[in-house]
């Protein structure tokens, strides 16, 4: 079991702030400050370029990948860290399409995070081979798999809807896709660190995810990619960067993919960001994922009950069944942006997604019942007295 009273002090949270936005950007792990300072001072500062060998910078993407692998049910040597999530989506999709050359349909859903669809659109356009992307409603994906049948090349889904928190039944969808011969890309952006995931037992083909949300790696923290062992030596990376080469420092004029997951590396590793992520994963090494999930559900249920009892103008947008939700709760309100700005001004930080979604993330590592109750009371006061209806709360900022 995990002692969540012991994990809370491991994060740097401003006094008086209730932080319910870890599903968008996790807070700073206290240890990351010293770890990054040491990397700057003792490694970059003292070792200079020799840090790639002496400090192990070049090996960190695999080492950190294995630590994330523990949280997603991946065997050692099948996950690597680096680049951005958009890059990893592109890599996975390009590789999957090449493995299914006679098929033309990429199936996603209308609730997928837009960047995944943008990357797919760009790839389809550049390939110019007649591929098409289908995006039915999330609840219709299973039926669409059967309808497309043997023309389905890739099923590409984000397990948890970034707006509502609705959770796909990924094991069932993976089985259905495999039955028609398709490959599956599983985006874990809102799953990794929110609940237990098992890419091995579910026989996932590819999985990708970011580390700056629930994993607390910091803004701009590198993404990760998993490739099933049965495919790792078959994939031919479309983004054939020098660090995915079999011998990067041989500087061969022609690309030769590295073994297994190494070929999914692209550019130079972000050393300072990996230092912060390393400190964050030290916390995750002591977390029991089943205990985390149980606690997350308790906090979410408490929040839903309290908001529905005190804020009749808000409508639950997330599934009521906890098994169908990630670790976030969303409510709809026509003036949701303004109401969220009013909340933030009073020290309760969530976020907003157009057109009307107020999102709240619940991470038991640093959120407890007191935080939930404060958030409910603050939101109830704002709604009861229309405190959101002030000009400053309606002015849109660049990031919502």
TrEMBL record:
InterPro entries: Kynureninase (IPR010111), PyrdxlP-dep_Trfase (IPR015424), PyrdxlP-dep_Trfase_major (IPR015421), PyrdxlP-dep_Trfase_small (IPR015422)
Pathway: Amino-acid degradation; L-kynurenine degradation; L-alanine and anthranilate from L-kynurenine: step 1/1; Cofactor biosynthesis; NAD(+) biosynthesis; quinolinate from L-kynurenine: step 2/3
Alphabetic keyword roster: Hydrolase, Pyridine nucleotide biosynthesis, Pyridoxal phosphate
Catalytic reaction equation(s): L-kynurenine + H2O = anthranilate + L-alanine + H(+); 3-hydroxy-L-kynurenine + H2O = 3-hydroxyanthranilate + L-alanine + H(+)
Pfam families the UniProt entry points to: KYNU_C
Cofactor(s) named in the record: pyridoxal 5'-phosphate
The enzyme's E.C. designation: 3.7.1.3
Top-level enzyme category: hydrolase
Residues the record lists as N6-(pyridoxal phosphate)lysine modifications: 213
Superkingdom assignment: Bacteria
Binding positions (pyridoxal 5'-phosphate): 85-86, 113-116, 158, 187, 190, 212, 242, 268
Annotated family: Belongs to the kynureninase family.
Quaternary structure annotation from Swiss-Prot or TrEMBL: Homodimer.
Functional description taken from the UniProt entry: Catalyzes the cleavage of L-kynurenine (L-Kyn) and L-3-hydroxykynurenine (L-3OHKyn) into anthranilic acid (AA) and 3-hydroxyanthranilic acid (3-OHAA), respectively.
Descriptive protein name: Kynureninase
Biological source species: Aliiroseovarius zhejiangensis
């Amino acid at each position: 079991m995990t002692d969540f009273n012991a994990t809370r002090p491991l994060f740097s949270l401003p006094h008086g702030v209730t932080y319910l936005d870890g599903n968008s950007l996790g807070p700073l792990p206290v240890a990351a400050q010293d770890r990054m300072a040491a990397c700057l001072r003792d490694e970059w500062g003292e070792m200079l370029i020799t840090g790639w060998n002496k400090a192990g910078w070049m090996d960190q993407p695999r080492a950190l990948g294995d630590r994330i692998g523990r949280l997603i049910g991946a065997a050692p040597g099948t996950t690597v860290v680096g680049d951005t999530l958009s890059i990893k989506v592109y890599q996975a999709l390009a590789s999957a399409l090449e493995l299914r050359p006679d098929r033309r349909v990429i199936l996603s859903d209308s609730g997928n995070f837009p960047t995944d669809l943008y990357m797919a659109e760009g790839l389809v356009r550049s390939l110019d081979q007649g591929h098409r992307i289908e995006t039915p409603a999330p609840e219709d994906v299973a039926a669409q798999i059967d309808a497309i049948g043997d023309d389905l090349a890739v099923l590409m889904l984000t397990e948890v809807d970034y707006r509502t928190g609705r959770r796909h039944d990924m094991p069932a969808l993976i089985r259905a896709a495999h039955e028609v011969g398709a490959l599956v890309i599983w985006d874990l952006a809102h799953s990794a660190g929110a609940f237990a995931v098992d890419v091995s037992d579910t026989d996932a083909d590819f999985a990708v995810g970011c580390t700056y949300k629930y994993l607390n790696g910091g803004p701009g923290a590198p993404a990760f990619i998993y490739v099933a062992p049965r495919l790792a030596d078959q994939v031919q990376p479309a983004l054939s960067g020098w660090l995915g080469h079999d011998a990067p420092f041989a500087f061969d004029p022609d690309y030769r993919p590295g073994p297994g997951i190494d070929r999914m590396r692209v550019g130079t590793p972000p050393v300072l960001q990996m230092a912060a992520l390393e400190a964050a994963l030290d916390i995750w090494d002591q977390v029991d994922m089943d205990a985390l999930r149980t606690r997350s559900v308790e906090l979410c249920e408490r929040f839903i009950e309290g908001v529905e009892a005190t804020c009749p103008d808000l409508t639950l947008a997330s599934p009521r069944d906890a098994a169908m939700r990630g670790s976030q709760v969303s409510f709809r309100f026509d003036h949701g942006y303004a109401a969220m700005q009013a909340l933030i001004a009073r020290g309760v930080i969530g976020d907003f997604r157009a057109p009307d979604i107020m999102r709240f993330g619940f991470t038991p590592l640093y959120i407890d019942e007191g935080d939930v109750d404060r958030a409910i009371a603050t939101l109830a006061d704002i709604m009861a007295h229309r405190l959101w209806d002030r000009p400053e709360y309606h002015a849109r900022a660049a990031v919502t």
